[in-house]
Specification:
Elements: H1 2-21, H2 25-47, H3 49-61, E1 64-68, E2 72-73, E3 87-91, E4 99-103, H4 111-117, H5 123-126, E5 131-137, E6 141-147, E7 154-161, H6 179-187
Helix pairs in contact: 1-2
Length: 195
């Protein structure tokens, strides 16, 4: 879809430019808002490619899991380093009683999720994320998605990252990560710094 979107914005911009060159001068002014907005959207569309390729790496490494009643919030977690725009707590694969926070590390395209994670969100909005699709390992990185209305496939995919501060003393080994787990994390595009 990213390629189609990029092609559509660039193609529309070129087609409108060609059309405006064949019409009277006032037509250029009528088309000016699209010339500006189309260029902006084409550049924005380019920004989608990095995360989309990372999502592919995650999906090639980890299978989808469907889970319900996952704790989430928009408040800042003190153990998480850096910016955070919402979090989900998922069980540690090595220790089911231990939950790890994964955060939206970038604000880019989190609006849909934020509206549903807000404490005062309407019940019909919160219902959209009562069940989520997750691919990944909470010790490293994951891909989170909401189910379609029928619940048969994921949509609204977003990368969530493990950003727990290294200075807390937590190590991957403390979370039960084996060298094989760390290697899978690397295959998914994570460069573990504290193993």
């Amino acid at each position: 879809m990213n390629v189609i979107g990029l092609g559509g914005w660039i193609g529309g911009w070129i087609a409108l430019l060609g059309l405006s060159l064949q019409t009277p001068g006032w037509a250029v002014w009528v088309c000016m808002p699209y010339f500006i907005y189309g260029a902006y959207r084409a550049l924005t569309q380019l920004r989608y490619f990095g995360p989309a390729l990372w999502m592919l790496r995650i999906l090639r490494t980890y299978p989808w899991q469907v889970t319900s009643d996952v704790r989430h919030g928009l408040t800042e977690r003190p153990e998480v380093l850096g910016r955070q725009y919402g979090w989900f707590e998922l069980p540690n694969p090595a220790r089911a009683d231990h939950r790890l926070p994964l955060v939206f590390a970038e604000h880019f395209r989190t609006g849909w999720w934020s509206r549903r994670m807000a404490p005062r969100a309407k019940p019909r909005l919160k219902a959209d994320i009562e069940t989520i699709w997750f691919a990944g390992d909470p010790r490293f990185v994951g891909l989170i998605a909401a189910p379609t209305s029928k619940g048969t496939s994921p949509r609204r995919l977003h990368i969530v990252e493990q950003k727990t501060d290294v200075r807390t003393g937590q190590r991957f080994a403390d979370w039960g990560a084996t060298p094989a787990d760390i290697e899978r994390g690397r295959q998914a595009g994570v460069l573990p710094v504290h193993h």
